[in-house]
Amino acid sequence: MNDLLGSLFPGVSAAGLAVLLAATMLGGLVRGFTGFGFAMVFMPLASMVIGPVAALGLIWCIDLPFALPIAARNARQAEWREVLPLLLTATLALPAGLWLLLWLDRETMRWILAGLVLTAVALMASGWRYHGRPGIPLSLGVGVLSGLFNGMASIGGMPLAVFWLGAQRNDRHKTRANLQTFFGISTLISGAILWQKGILTMAAMMMAVPLFAGYGVALWAGTHGFQLASESTFRRIAYAVIFLSAMVSLPLWDGLVGR
């Protein structure tokens, strides 16, 4: 068993493997519960172990078999007038985010990733809201940010979560349907681009195989928890898990824990 895991996760220690599994399951719980947040939990933690570039390919492989059927179930509830402009601009901005990922060094990317996640959580938890239906310029701008963040760290859901959770008229059901639908379609688009850039590799696909079961169980648990939780509980749990994941991943602690 150890030889098999060693071949699937070359250069990853037992502690590193435990971090990857924990990140997968925590991210799955948040994803199932809120409709977003897998990458916001997984990427900061996985980047500590295998680096941001490898983590980006791995997260795509883990989420793909689940993202497509989930999107299909939620498509009817989604507001396509909001989803389509976001998809268009996010797709156009994705290559620029990938360029930044490949250009910046590993530690700088970890700082940027944690900083973006912490900023998003602070904005969402502050209680900020806007009124009315989002206009085209706002939707297009959020789409650009989503594409950039998706290319840099597969956290394209972060600006979307701020956008839709911040919409006072949206309840958690509408927010969740929009996010799930967006992720399903954008996963197919980003996969083609990641493969062309050499980030989506056979090694990433093989690494994802042992993590599928943990992610699936956590996703199921999070989905059922969503049915039971109140609106306020829904938001607080999501914010807390994302915040803690980003804090733990900060390079600031590397010297203390021997990373």
Please explain how this structure is put together.
The chain has one domain (2-250). The protein is mainly α and 259 residues long. Helix content is 80%, strand content 0%. The mean pLDDT is 80.
Summarize the structure.
The chain has 259 residues and is an all-alpha fold.
Give the SSE map.
Blueprint: H1 2-8, H2 14-34, H3 38-50, H4 52-74, H5 80-103, H6 106-125, H7 136-153, H8 157-165, H9 172-196, H10 202-208, H11 212-228, H12 231-249, H13 254-257
Total strands: the figure is: 0
Strand content: under 5%
C-alpha end-to-end distance: 25 Å
Largest sheet: none
Contiguous low-pLDDT stretches (5 residues minimum) are none
Report helical residue fraction: over 70%
Count of domain modules: 1
User: What kind of assembly state do the chains in view correspond to?
Assistant: single chain
Annotation keywords:
259 residues; mainly alpha
